[in-house]
Amino acid sequence: MRLWSCAFFMAWGMFLAIPCPFPKWDEAARYRMLVCLPLVGAIVGGLWALSAYLLSLFPCHAAVRALVLTAVPALVTGFIHLDGFMDVSDAVLSSRDLEGRQKILKDPHAGAFAVLSALFLILAMFSLFFSWEYSAADLVPLALIPVAVRACAGIAVILLTPIETSQYSGGRKKTLAIPLFIMLAAALAVPAALYGVHGLAPAAAAAAYWASALFAKKRLGGMSGDISGYALSIGELIGIAVLVLIRSFVR
């Protein structure tokens, strides 16, 4: 139990910008930390949904609401996933060979592909939130989008063959994916059961995560934390897109 508690606070300290109340690190809990990713997602999603709820209580311009809702997940996570998104975008969009793409992935400098991809990602999220006329029924699916994509992230890092330079390149315990599958199933089933078609956004986010992760893995020769951040960013965007489009066209 001590290792699981340590793993949760390790995941908090690594993947959230909110100060961790009990900062800990135990190398033996590294892979357990991946199982705690959906719990981190619950914090992100909870704050996201709470922000949307509070904004609905006060009259504010749609642009202000869109700005806040676009910024919340990035601020809460300290931009860590956006950083991975930019690194991978630079690499996968390059016309170099595999070795060259892997070299770009490790380069700390941001290239044109990284900057433009991040710009389009942020503008797309802002535009979606700007046009979103949501109700209380949308808040649960919104909260579960980060849970679903982080469950996928844990599964992907545990099960997919990593890049040799990845910190997760050795000693993977594949049985740890089982609780992640259970949490993923819950994150997909609960909103669908409660809200029908309006609850499909987490499932769309999970599907987009896997499509993006497998594409980047193929382009870069293996899985890594940066690829997970790349796929997570795209997954959240697609989840929000489905949430907004369903609200727009299905009443």
List the helices and strands and how they pair.
Blueprint: H1 2-15, H2 30-35, H3 37-57, H4 62-76, H5 80-92, H6 98-106, H7 112-130, H8 139-159, H9 177-195, H10 201-220, H11 225-249
Helix pairs in contact: 3-4, 3-8, 4-7, 5-6, 5-7, 5-11, 7-11, 8-9, 8-10, 8-11, 10-11
Describe this structure in words.
With 251 residues, the protein is mainly α. It has one domain (35-249). It is 73% helix and 0% strand. It contains eleven helices and no strands. It has helices spanning 2-15, 30-35, 37-57, 62-76, 80-92, 98-106, 112-130, 139-159, 177-195, 201-220, 225-249. Helix 5 packs antiparallel against helix 6 (98-106) and helix 10 (201-220) packs antiparallel against helix 11. The chain is globular, with a radius of gyration of 18 Å.
Question: What descriptive keywords fit this protein?
Answer:
251 residues, mainly alpha, 11 helices, 73% helix
